Amino acid sequence: MSLLSLRGVRKAYGANVVLDDFDLDVDEGSCVVLIGASGSGKSTLLRCVNLLETVDDGVISLNGVDITDPRADADKIRSGIGVVFQSYNLFPHLSVLDNVTLAPIRVHRVRRDVARARALEVLDRVGLADKASAKPDELSGGQQQRAAIARALVNSPALMLLDEITSALDPELVGEVLDLLRDLRSDGITMLICTHEMAFAREVADQVCFLHHGRPLEIGPPDQLFGNPREPRTREFLSRIRQREG
Amino acid sequence: MSSSGVSDWRPSALQQERIAYRRRRAQRSTLIAAVSSIVVLVVVAVGIGSTPGWPRVRDTFFDVHRGWQALPTVAQGLWLNIRVMLVCAVLIVIIGMALAIMRTLRGPIFFPLRVFAAAYTDVFRGLPLLLVIFLLGFGVPALQLRGLPNQAVIWGGAALVLTYSSYVAEVFRAGIESVHPSQRAAARSLGLSYRQTLRFVVLPQAVRRVLPPLLNDFVSLQKDSGLIAVLGVIDAIRAAQLETAIDFNFTPYVVAGLLFVALTIPLTRLTDYVARRQGWYGGGGGPV
Ligand SMILES: Nc1ncnc2c1ncn2[C@@H]1O[C@H](COP(=O)(O)OP(=O)(O)OP(=O)(O)O)[C@@H](O)[C@H]1O
Ligand SMILES: [Mg+2]
Predict the structure, then answer these.
(1) Which of A115-119, B5-9, B60-64 has the least mean pLDDT?
(2) Which of B242, B156, B197, B212 minimizes the C-alpha distance to A102?
(3) Domain ranges (residues) in chain B
């Protein structure tokens, strides 16, 4: 059974229909990558899944539970989903360690010393143990991104939503984050990722989904979708990107 | 963390030359500042001292003996100002913060609270402080209601709290709204509730950001605490007024003025320091 499923999801901002009758399934333990032109609605989709936006129609269910039901406990649902945004969004007034322990202590009511120990473990895993007491503005872009991943990971979420987490990183750091994601996947963490980097998508995805005009125009394994796309629109999009990348 | 790479660093010849240049330039600036200050002081002193009215002005406003005589009474009055100021400041912060939070609450249940907070700030920011002091200080005791205190100082303080909490509420609100929405989104996506987000993510950033304008309001409160003198409360200004009435020498007013300035200077400096540390003043600015 799929961990996350979207059925007929619609989201519009005024007359701008961003998601239109959108269906998608994300299997437990798999990694689905969303690609598509800028403004095609990738970030909007993730925000809907995380209940930061209310859908206009359709159903999103997580573990078989309809989370778009207005009676659902949104805070509880959110606390089971890890999110890393397009821009880092660390809390600037808190140290890296306090960023990571905030939710465990305040939401999950973990004891402070336990939360700290667990946070240090996770920071060590993303290679930031020595930066635990630094403030976010003292970190490089890649370090901030990894701190944000640690903050999402520490709650042991069933689902991780990652929005363009490598767009600000140099190739070496992209490799680092990629390793990290591969690691996470082997731990059985389900991931839904947006990206503009096709090489990255190809590396990490089980399924790639191409968004066009608010719909999932084509979904398939990376080899098929990149190597032999069925839809002419997908082909067009990919060739435009390849041209740009030279 | 490891200092081994740093410890064997010596400034290069080029860097030493730069350091020496900066030091020379700083010394030159200090010298120029000193010389120009002395020139200005001498010109002003000679200019004022040679005007025909100066001896009368000096005797009426700057009589050292009279000032010294008035100092204990005026200083005792100032102690009242300080106490009023401190108590009011605490209440103002609490009420101002409560009003600011009320105005940012979402949802239909809170509609009355939002309207109340908006009306409150509109009214008390618009009313002249002196008017509020008159209304409360003379008006309420005249009602002779049982159970209400009738000391002028309490009602004067209440007027200060009412007026200043509306300013401070607006300062806090500006701070709350200046925190980027993505910070709220990040907090909510971690599962923090609306209240937790406000308390652990939004307010700490908001307060830090509005500290300079907030301290500025308290500098202003320090001197406006003198306005309660109109109610007959013996504060520094009223004490100076009584002293002045003895012989129509205005030196006690000057003494009170100097004391108020001396009182506000530390807070003004603190405000400047906090603002500078937050990078409110870009570059520039001389060494003062
Ligand atoms: N809060 C909002 N209010 C109004 N319109 C919005 C809002 N958020 C997004 N949009 C619109 O929705 C569309 C999709 O935006 P979205 O951020 O989902 O795109 P995206 O696929 O993530 O693009 P990118 O690759 O550039 O990040 C855009 O046309 C955008 O202008
Ligand atoms: Mg986006």
Answers:
(1) B5-9
(2) B197
(3) 62-279
